[in-house]
Amino acid sequence: MAGQAVGEILAFGVGVALSPLAIVAVVVMLVAPRGAGPACAFAAAWAASLAIVAAVALVVAEEAHASDTGGPATWVSAVKIVVGALLVFFGSRGWRRRAPDEGDAPAPGWMRRLDGVTARGAAGLAALFVVKPKNLLLSIAAGLAVAQVGPGAWGGAVAVAVFVALGSAGVGAPLVIHAAMPLRGRDVLVGLRDWMVRENAAIVAVLSLVIAAKLVGDAVVALAS
């Protein structure tokens, strides 16, 4: 059951990992005067927040009997359809609100304030990023996907841990680059930052659409069986 539960959350973990603005926040902290301290605090708080949201969703779904004779309960499929619709809504809204030419858009105000951010401030920002619509919905969906399998306490813990590891890969990558490339790392990170700021809306929109299609497809199959 643990293997099946892990398989259910892979797409959600990758979707959370590809969170452009969260990655940009880590990059900005790393190239700021305070260095890696706030960036590490951000990454740690990000992982902890993902774990809390997914674990709470898992426990609530299990209490509501998400697993029905080895398969998802009917209400789980209905929730998946709703979550998929919300992902499409928020993804399309972000796409419509993007700057006409994001390459010429000024840096957001919060990004300019990160130069002097403390470790505590960075941790708080990470928690806020986790509860942004896309990440919150994907974390809830991950907990729900695990619960519908009925993997038990051990299997559920393993699946949530894998989800958190995958979901933290994006914000962890700049830290690895910074540590492995102390001389050239800054140029690589600045290039990554600029590209992700420019393509943020497109990345989120595509991810939201793909994962929404998976959720709705799984729900339709479950309801038809």
Structure characterization notes:
There is one protein chain. The chain has 10 helices and 2 strands; from the N terminus they run αααββααααααα. The chain has about 220 residues and is an all-alpha fold. The radius of gyration is 18 Å and the shape is globular. α3 runs parallel beside α6, α4 packs antiparallel against α7 and α7 packs antiparallel against α8 (about 150-165). About 80% of the residues lie in helices and about 0% in strands. The model has no long low-confidence stretch (mean pLDDT about 85).
Question: Key features?
Answer:
single chain; 225 residues; 2 strands
**End-to-end Cα distance:** 20 Å
On the 0 to 100 scale, the average pLDDT is 84
* SSE-based structural type: mainly alpha
Largest sheet: 2 strands, antiparallel
What portion of the residues fall into strands of 2 or more residues? under 5%
Helical content stands at over 70%
User: How many helical elements?
Assistant: 10
Which helices and strands occur, and which strands form pairs?
Layout: H1 2-17, H2 20-31, H3 36-63, E1 67-68, E2 71-72, H4 74-96, H5 109-112, H6 119-130, H7 133-149, H8 152-167, H9 169-180, H10 185-224
Helix pairs in contact: 1-7, 1-8, 2-3, 2-9, 2-10, 3-6, 3-7, 3-8, 3-9, 4-7, 4-10, 7-8, 9-10
Quick summary:
The protein is mainly α and 225 residues long. The chain is 80% helix and 2% strand.
